[in-house]
Structure formats: structure tokens, C-alpha cells
Amino acid sequence: MELTLMIITLVAVLANIIISLLKKPSAEADAARLISMMQQELDRLSATIRTDLSNQKSEFNNSFSALKSELDQNLQANRTELGNNMESLRKTIEDKITEFSSALTQSTNISIEKQDQIRKETQARLGEFNESMNKALDALTQSFNQKLLDFGQLQKQSSESYLSKHDEIKKSTDTNLETIRKTVEEKLEKLQAANSEKLEEMRQTVDEKLQKTLNTRLAESFKQVQDQLEKVHTGLGEMTNMAKDVGGLKNALTNVKAKGIIGEIQLESLLNSFLSPQQYEANVQVKANSGERVEFAICLPGKDEGGKPLYLPIDSKFPLTPYEKLLEAYDEADSNKIASARKDLYSSIKASAKTIQDKYIDPPNTTDWAIMFLPSEGLYAELLQNTQLVMELQKDYQIALAGPTILGAYINSLQMGFKTLAIQKSSSEVWKLLGAVKTEFGRFGDVLEKAQKKIAGAGSDLDALVGTRTRKIQAKLRKVEELPQKEATALLDMDILELEADEEDEA
Fold first, then answer.
1. Which residue would you say has higher pLDDT here, 362 or 262?
2. Strand partners, 206
3. Does one domain contain both 282 and 422?
4. Do residues 383 and 496 both lie within one domain?
């Protein structure tokens, strides 16, 4: 520490000297002289530092030697003390073990004696028990053998009686069966004869009526055929005109709006058949900040009861032009045209699915999927053959295809779900009502219990009044003379009338 202070002081002195020299004009000469002085001072300082380090090293060695000798002495003393403690502990443990061994030996001897005594008592009791059991078993065996003999005799008597009765019943049954057989055979013969006569009469009657009816019907049929031929001839002219109008109807159906209207009408009819007006909506804006409206949407229950419903979008699509091309290719049986028409039809369906996905699917306002309704079962069956297309529509566009039959079944299942949900809600209301009834019934029970206590208290008061008070009054009235019955009745009736009048006035 002193060495550090000396170095700091020296540096400060040198700094002051350098600053003072730099201020003088003869800076170079002073600088040389300063350097010489600094060199001398540094040499002196180095010698001082070496001397101090040597002294400190000697002191450290001396201190370390003293510390080492002291530690050796302490370790030796601790080792000696530990050895003494271990020896005393060993002797103590040996004494304890000896005491425990003697106590254990004594306890073992006592236990062996008790076990011998218990074994002898047990053997004696077992001998007595065996004798009593043998006697009881002999008595039971004799009784059982006697019972078996009695039962065998009784069984033999019952068997003989049963065999005799069985023979009698068998003989009687055989006689009755023979009589019944003869009676049935006679009645069957009579019935067959009567049936043969009736059948012959019916055959003759039927032949006559058939011949007459056949002649009449043939004449009428020839006349009807002639009339129908005339009508067919007239209808052929009408069919020619109708064939001309079919082309115009086909052109009208190729209009996109007309096709959509046909699908919408069929879809609305299906929804109307299975759902109530509150369970679906038409022309619904399911996407916020968008003018697009889906044709129909089924209202599913939302997360919050009584809140906004969750919509399931349903849009009808009818790609009539590619479907007609496919049908024409089927009629021509041209595989190339069929493949090309199928490709166009699949592309049209994918484009429609993309449109429905972009316009109408908007979770959480709607479900994360929608239904594309195909008004034709033939078109639905054609698309359903391509499993890859159906899976692609479901996976990439979240669109499920549905024909009229499938959609009807699906809507019917939804209707069952709505009914189940309504039943669950009703059941929860019933449980709430039962809970309220239970609460009120508990309160009613408390009130009844209080009333019962009050009635019991009033009864005890009345018993006291009738018993104790009546006896006291009778004791006081013993010395009073009784009035005749008529006077007493008249007097008491007057008092009762006055009492009733007073009560009415007070009321």
C-alpha cells in the first residue's frame, strides 16, 4: 500500500515538473534535464521496490511456516481427541448390544414357553372338538340314513301310483283320439263333396259370365282402338308443331338466369318441405361489407343463445351446356368427345365452387363450408363417379355436392337435430322449474313445521286450560248453589248474545 502511494506521488511530482518546464522558453534543455532526473528517480524507485518485495517475501514465508506448524499441531490434537471419542463410543455401543442381547434372549425364552403352553392347550381343545364332532357326525349319519330309507319307500309308493294313473290316462287319451279321428274324417268327406258341388256351380257361372264379358269388352276395345288411332293421327300434327317449339325452349333454357331460376325453385321447394320459415333465409348477405347475397342459408344455432344464427350457405348451380354436350357424346359413344365433355363439365363445376367459396363462405358468420345444389340427379350421379373431383371440392374449396335426394336427406337430419336441441332446451327449463318447486317445497315444509309446533303448543295450552283451570273453577264453584236449568239457560243465552254484540262492535 505504501509503495502504491509512493508511485502515485512520484507521478504527480513528475507531472508538475513537466508542466512547469513546458511553460518556460528553454523547453528542450529543460526536457533533457528532466529526462535525466526522471531516469535517476526511476532507478532509485526500482531499487526501493526490489527491496520492499524481498522483505515482503521473507515475511510471507515466515508467516506461512508458522501457520503450517500451527495447523499441524491442531490436526494432531483433533486426531487424538477423535480417537478417544471413538473408543468411548465403541465401548458404549458394545455395552448396549450386550444389554439388548440379554434382554432379547430372555424375551425369546418367555415367548417359547408361552408358545409351548398355547400349543398344549390347543391340542387339548382340538382333541375335545374332534370327539364332539365325531359324535355329532355319527348321529347325523344315522339320521340321514333313516331319512333316505323313508324317502325311498315314499318314492316307491309315489312311482307306483303315478304309473297306474299314467296307464289310465293313456288308455283314455287313445280312445278319445280314435273317436276324434273318425269324426274328422267323416266331416272332411262331407266337406269335400260339398266343395266339389260348389266349385262346379261356380265354374259354370264364371264361364258364362266370362264369355259374355269377353264379347262385350272385345267390341268396346275395337271401338276404342279406332278412336285412339284417330286421336293419334290428330296428335301427330300437334307433335310436329311441338317439335318446332322444342328448339326455342332449348335456347331459352341455355340462358344462365333461367337455369338458375329452375334450380332456385327446386331448392326452395326442398327447404320448404323439410324446414320451417324460421330455420332458413333467402337472399342473405352473409359477408360483411359485400353486396353478394347467397340464394338460401340454413340458420344453425349460434354460440350465444338468442343471438345471431350461424349460416350454412346453399347455392344452386346447373351447368346445362357442358352437361348436354356430355349427354350427346354418350349418345354418339365417342370416347374422345366424352373425355373432352367431362373435362369441360369438371372445369365448370370447379369455377362455380370457387365462386361460392369467395362470395359466401365467411367464418364466423357462416360455416367453414357450403353446399352446391345440383337440380338434376343425373348430373349429381355423373359428378359423384369422379371421387377425386369430389375430394378436391371438399378439400380445396370447402364445397359439398348435393343432389335433390341427398339434400333432402341432409335437411331432414338437420331438422332432427333442431328437434333434439329444442328438447334439450325444454328439458333444461323443466329442470329449472323442478329446482324452483324443490326450493318452494322446502320453504313450505319449514312453514308446516312451524305451524305444527304452534298447533302443538296451542294443544298443550288447551290441555292445561281444560285440566288445571277447569278443576280450579269447579273447586271454587262448589259452594255456589245451582240455578234451575231454564233460568241458567236463559241467563247464559243473554250473556252470550251480549258478548257477540260486543265483539261485533269491536270489529
1. 362
2. none
3. yes
4. no
Asked whether residue 333 falls in the same domain as residue 418, the answer is: yes
Contact 35, 14 (CB under 8 A): no
Distance of CA 269 to the CA centre of its chain: 36
**If DSSP codes are grouped into helix, strand and coil, which group holds residue 296?**
strand
- 506 pLDDT exceeds 70? no
Residues 491 and 392 in one domain: no
Burial of 356: CB neighbours in 10 Å, binned 0-12, 13-18, 19+: buried
The full DSSP string for 78-132 is HHHHHHHHHHHHHHHHHHHHHHHHHHHHHHHHHHHHHHHHHHHHHHHHHHHHHHH
Domain around 278: 256-434
Higher model confidence: residue 238 or residue 280?
280
What is the C-alpha separation between 469 and 475, in angstroms, rounded? 10
Cα distance between residue 392 and residue 349, in whole Å: 11
pLDDT tens-digit series, residues 338-379: 888 888 988 899 998 888 888 888 888 888 889 998 888 888
What cell numbers appear for 298 in the block? 340454413
Q: The cell 502504491 sits on which residue? A: 4
pTM: 0.38
Backbone angles phi, psi at 483, to 5 degrees: -85, 160
| Domain end (from 407, 434, 461) | 434
Name which of 420, 423, 421, 418 is nearest 274 in CA terms: 418
Q: Is the pLDDT of residue 259 over 50?
A: yes
Q: Give the integer Cα–Cα distance in Å for 7 and 411.
A: 101
Residues in the chain, total: 507
How open is the CA angle 136-139-145, to the nearest 5 degrees? 135
Number of structural domains (the chain) is 2
Output the nine-digit C-alpha cell for 70: 500451527
Of 390, 392, 368, residue with least CA distance to 312: 368
Task: Tell me the pLDDT tens digit for each residue of 69-120.
Answer: 888 887 787 778 887 778 888 888 888 788 877 877 887 788 788 878 888 8
Report how far residue 379's alpha carbon sits from residue 136's, in angstroms, rounded to the nearest whole number. Answer: 94
Distance, in Å, from the CA atom of 383 to the CA atom of 323, rounded to the nearest integer, reads 10
